[in-house]
Design goal:
- The chain is α+β, with helices and mostly antiparallel strands and 292 residues long.
- It has 2 domains: 17-237, BirA Bifunctional Protein, domain 2, CATH 3.30.930.10; 245-289, SH3 type barrels (Roll), CATH 2.30.30.
- Helix content is 24%, strand content 30%.
- The chain has helices at residues 17-23, 42-51, 108-121, 174-184, 205-226, 232-237, and strands at 33-39, 64-71, 89-98, 131-134, 138-141, 144-156, 161-170, 245-250, 253-263, 269-273, 276-280, 286-289.
- The strands form 2 sheets. The chain has a 7-stranded mixed β-sheet, sandwiched between helices.
- Helix 2 (42-51) links the parallel strand 1 and strand 2.
- Helix 1 (17-23) crosses helix 5 (205-226) and helix 3 (108-121) crosses helix 5 (205-226).
- It is globular, with a radius of gyration of 18 Å.
- The termini are far apart.
- The model has no long low-confidence stretch (mean pLDDT 89).
């Protein structure tokens, strides 16, 4: 017998806290879950709290999750604005202390991407394989951008790092979102925004949040213990551009092009070029398919 609260109605875009907690895994259901109507940025909110903590591995008993229906200063990689109407996107940040120094955080955003792919594929999609990853940290649905990740470090010591993981997932309203981005003249890094409802008509914020938190709970344990290496094979297995010619750009200027092979154990992109195999670290670069 299923004792879960009923799924939210399609006209009810708010998060059903009881259902989200019931769906949340037993190992993590006691994480503080804050849901607010509006804020500037959930990342900024949690970064301020993390910076105020003692710089110790045990400074935070458990991760904190902060969700906002509207972020007035939401942002993505390279400071891009994140556009979303209340109820259309799941916007939240997770703050935690990982038992790793700053250099031990290499590949964290890629590992989070793996967790998001696994989370979204766990939902009742007709074709879960439509969801894949674009290096370094975009989640794609049939080649269009479904979710993005922004990770910030509040402090780091030789034994621990305080991080805030920001995640934005487009759940509904893909057409309206794409139109707003075009009107604003914002760059979309070679991919058009889309929403989960394209593949799952009944997609809602509640079930999407629970799925993503379940996957993140496992991620934090594994990454804290071993870094990115355990996630490398999985990332390569869901690589959207594997074996395809890509272009690396910095502020619109081409830096390199070649065949995207995958990533190494540190999350660096492996690129086969006419000059041989090159490794590319995450930084202020964007990746696009060639001839697009």
């Amino acid at each position: 017998m299923n004792d879960l609260p009923a799924p939210p109605r399609t006209d009810d875009w708010r998060i059903d806290r009881d259902r989200a907690v019931a769906l949340f895994g037993p190992a993590a259901h006691d994480w503080p879950l804050e849901i607010v109507e509006e804020t500037g940025s959930t990342n900024t909110d949690l970064m301020a709290r993390m910076k105020a903590l003692p710089h110790k591995a045990d400074a935070l008993a458990r991760p904190i999750v902060r969700v906002a229906y509207l972020q007035t200063a939401g942002r993505g990689r390279r400071g891009r604005a994140w556009y979303a109407q209340p109820g259309d996107a799941l916007l939240f940040s997770l703050a935690c202390v990982l038992p790793r120094p700053l250099e031990g955080l290499a590949g964290l955003s890629l590992a989070v991407g793996v967790a998001l792919v696994d989370a979204l594929r766990s939902l009742p999609l007709a074709n879960p394989g439509q969801i894949a990853l674009k290096w370094p940290n975009d989640v794609l649905l049939e080649g269009d951008k479904l979710a993005g990740i922004l990770i910030e470090t509040a402090w780091s010591t030789a034994h621990a790092s305080a991080v805030v993981i920001g995640i934005g997932t487009n759940v509904r309203g893909a057409d309206e979102l794409a139109a707003k981005v075009r009107t604003a003249g914002a760059p979309v890094a070679g991919t058009t925004p889309t929403a989960l409802s394209r593949a799952l008509p009944g997609a809602n914020l509640t079930d999407t949040l629970a799925a993503e938190l379940n996957a993140l709970e496992s991620l934090l344990q594994r990454f804290g213990a071993a870094g990115f290496a355990p996630f490398q094979a999985r990332w390569n297995g869901v690589h959207a551009y594997a074996g395809r010619e890509v272009v690396l750009l910095e502020q619109g200027v081409e830096l390199a092009r070649g065949i995207a092979v995958g990533v190494d154990a540190r999350g660096q992109l492996l690129l086969d070029t006419p000059h041989g195999r090159e490794t590319v670290a995450t930084g202020d670069v964007s990746l696009r398919l060639a001839n697009t």
